[in-house]
Amino acid sequence: MLYLILFGAPGSGKGTQSDLLVEKYKLTHLSTGDLLRKEIASGSELGKTINEYISNGNLIPDEMMISMLSAHIDNTPATAGFILDGFPRTVAQAEALQNMLEQREGAQTQLVDLEVDKDELISRLLKRGETSGRSDDNLETIQKRLEVYETKTKPVNDYYKAKGLHACIDGMGTIDEIFQRIVKALEGKI
Predict the structure, then answer these.
(1) Which residues are catalytic?
(2) Sign of the CA dihedral running 98, 101, 107, 113
(3) How many folded domains does the chain comprise?
(4) Residues paired with residue 4 on neighbouring β-strands, in sequence order
(5) What are 136-159's pLDDT values in tens digits?
(6) In this structure, what CATH number is given to the domain that contains residue 80?
């Protein structure tokens, strides 16, 4: 089973490409943000604990996140695989994810990195902010998010490169051009 990590800076097109990949390959989209919100809304003890972390501005411990992901994967009806959205964001999370997946028979991981020029990322995010009304799509916040991506999240690439589980995709061009590049990179993996 394929565990596809669609990776890239904010504005690189991960959400758009995820939708296309889900449709083409019948993958299950797995958003860690959605999982966390669902658990909090359930009112469970775990949800209360998660809410406490988030309310205090803290990240969810990696072990807790991996446990939630594992349980969700186990309870998902038959699927060709998963697209992981929003996870992993750090090398420690990538290591924990790989440890969990290595215990699953037939699990295959592939990171697809959408590379987009910084000026284009800023332009895309500003345009998205104009149309979506997202308050975090303003120049100051965008620059901060890109800086965090470069320092904290981008090192995940090196982790997957070292394992030979990395495909770099030119994320510039039309949505279809980028999608075709991803499809080509995934040939023989799905």
Answers:
(1) 14, 89, 128, 134, 145
(2) negative
(3) 1
(4) 83, 110
(5) 778 988 998 898 889 888 999 999
(6) 3.40.50.300
